[in-house]
Design a protein that fits this description.
By secondary structure, the protein is an alpha/beta fold. The chain is 36% helix and 14% strand. The protein contains 13 helices and 13 strands. Helix 7 crosses helix 10.
């Protein structure tokens, strides 16, 4: 019987652990005691798994000990996962301040699994990485800590995560899953485990490196396409042409890709291209298009701020000392995820102009925003009036706000996402 341990219970790990628990005994392991406590109480503050859905699979004790019993038990105790035989590692893979891949979470989680690894066990990685990380970086850690030999005593696989935070339609079981194994036989075993719970089916890649490469180019492709339309937005703004109207017209062609301009943040699209670029540079190739796209997208926060200021000046608003309201601080709409949000770039640039910025987001946790970015945010809509209002995130909540009650007699409304264009003075 497969006894599954999911290492890391964030936006990726928890939905997967919950899904596996419908058919297998599952231990969800996380080093964050606060996170474990909330999950065992049936609460997920990332909002990726509804409370009733989570509570339906939760059990009060280690399900490995109840023969034939399915269910999810969350723990931060290493002893609870020592009897697992199928480990899934779902920790984040960020970049450092120089945009270099930071594999520390992968190293640490591999050490954790290595301490309990046994003969015959399978370790599957889901973290987004450049081709080669699983076998060249993670496996040596498992071997060193466990004392076991790879592909003799234990085996590995890679199945890239395809979680879309905040998306309640394309949930984990409804998205086709790429799988792979460290040899053909293990590949089939890994594929069978995932296929047993993924309704959309699976695609068994011929090798771990192919699966790793497939994941990293998915997000790199999106990043480059968004960079293209962001550049179009800059060009059409100079030409005084409505970018969204241009994209709508071009979109009438059957094979035109429907990308829109915007801020590119989050844990995937704004990060993963750097992983592929790093690997290419290690082998002597400088990836021009990938890095050019990254540079352009990373410049958009300052560009948005400059356009807000430009519009304010045209209206005769004194910029230095002005008060602005930022609507939204998460990296995308209708979710509480603030990882790598580029809204903070807009705020920083506005503050450089001497503008005082207040931030309102009913989805984001103010304590998390303060911890991550040293910024104050609130879940309560301010009652004061502002010289500028920036719709930074397209939360559904914002579409119902009466902006006239928040703006001074002379004020600017800037719509980053192009969702309230009829009310805005300017938009990206």
């Amino acid at each position: 019987m497969r006894k599954i341990a999911v290492i890391g219970l964030g936006y990726v790990g928890l939905p997967l652990a919950r899904l596996f628990a419908t058919k297998y005994p599952v231990i969800g392991f996380d080093i964050n005691q606060k996170r474990i406590n909330e999950l065992q109480q049936g609460k997920d503050f990332t909002l990726e798994v509804e409370d009733d859905v989570l509570q339906a699979v939760l059990v009060e004790s280690n399900p490995y000990l109840a023969n034939g019993s399915n269910g999810l038990y969350c723990s931060n105790q290493l002893s609870d996962i020592e009897n697992a035989n199928f480990y899934v590692i779902t920790v984040p893979t960020p970049v450092d301040k120089h945009n270099r891949p930071d594999l520390t979470p992968l190293y640490k989680s591999s050490e954790t699994v290595g301490k309990v690894l046994k003969k015959g066990d399978i370790v599957v990685y889901e973290s987004t990485v450049y081709p080669g990380v699983t076998e060249e970086e993670c496996i040596p850690v498992l071997e060193k800590v466990s004392g076991l030999k790879f592909n003799v005593d234990f085996f590995a696989g890679y199945s890239p995560e395809r979680i879309n935070p905040g998306d309640k339609q394309h949930t984990v079981e409804k998205i086709l899953k790429v799988t792979s194994g460290s040899n053909p036989e293990i590949g089939k075993l890994v594929d069978e485990v995932y296929k047993s719970v993924i309704l959309a089916g699976t695609h068994l890649a011929p090798s771990i490196k192919v699966a790793e490469a497939a994941k990293v180019i998915e997000n790199s492709q999106r990043d480059i396409n968004i960079a293209f339309v962001n550049e179009l937005a800059k060009i059409f703004n100079i030409l005084e042409i409505d970018t969204h109207a241009v994209l709508e017209a071009a979109g009438t062609k059957w094979n035109f890709l429907p990308f829109k301009p915007g801020l590119v943040g989050g844990h995937c699209i704004g990060v993963d291209p750097y992983y592929l670029a790093q690997k290419a540079q290690e082998h002597g190739y400088h990836p021009e298009i990938i890095l050019a796209g990254r540079r352009l997208n990373d410049s958009m926060g300052e560009y948005v701020a400059s356009q807000v200021v430009k519009t304010m000046i045209k209206k005769g608003i004194n910029v230095n000392g002005a008060e602005a309201l930022m609507l939204g601080v998460t990296f995308k709409e209708n979710c509480p995820d603030v990882r790598n949000t580029k809204i903070v770039d807009v705020i920083a640039a506005l503050e450089d102009y001497g503008i005082q910025v207040s931030t309102y987001d009913p989805w984001a946790n103010p304590a998390e925003v303060q911890h991550e970015y040293k910024l104050n945010s609130t879940k309560e809509l301010p009652s004061s009036k502002f010289d500028a209002i920036i719709l930074g995130v397209a939360h559904n909540d914002f579409k119902e706000i009466n902006l006239d009650l928040l703006k001074k007699d002379i004020a600017v409304i800037y719509d980053v996402k192009g969702v309230i264009s009829e009310k805005a003075d300017n938009r990206l």
